[in-house]
Amino acid sequence: MEGILMQTGVLRVLRAIAASWWRHKELRRTGQTGQAQRLERETVLRDLGYLKQAALLPNAHVICGEGGTFIHLGWTTVSTFAPIERFPLATLAVARGTPFIDIRPVTNVIAFANLPRVARDGSGDPDHSGASRSVSLIAYIEMVEALGARITNDPRPLQST
User: Fold this and answer.
1) Could you give the CA distance from residue 140 to residue 9 in angstroms, rounded to a whole number?
2) Distance (Å, rounded) from C-alpha 55 to C-alpha 92?
3) Nearest to 91, CA basis, from 50, 132, 126, 128
4) Does the pLDDT of residue 1 top 50, yes or no?
């Protein structure tokens, strides 16, 4: 039953987001309700696809810094200049278990900028160096956590002490 409630809640949020878009509001205001509804349906379906990818892709993650919030989905990135608190799609992804990296506490910007990128396909490229170097999400989390980032929904296996 809880899964159904979660799905209903997700749909409610996505529908509310789609209906609040200025373009959709303007279409409704000018009497083009059918077109507004069609675009809202397309938006909800697209966002559901993003949530599905966030749950299934091995290196999918949400990252939030001073420059905004990004949902990294392999070859696709969904972003906004707003913090995660004002990006409902990212909040939903994190609520559904997508790893979240909060880099707002990171103060060493140079070290952060020099980190490798997260590999798109779940693998890493440990032998390659330079700007195009890529690592697994777990390796990236370890690097960014050492700089002071906070991690939610940590994908690393729990270590017994």
Assistant:
1) 32
2) 11
3) 50
4) no
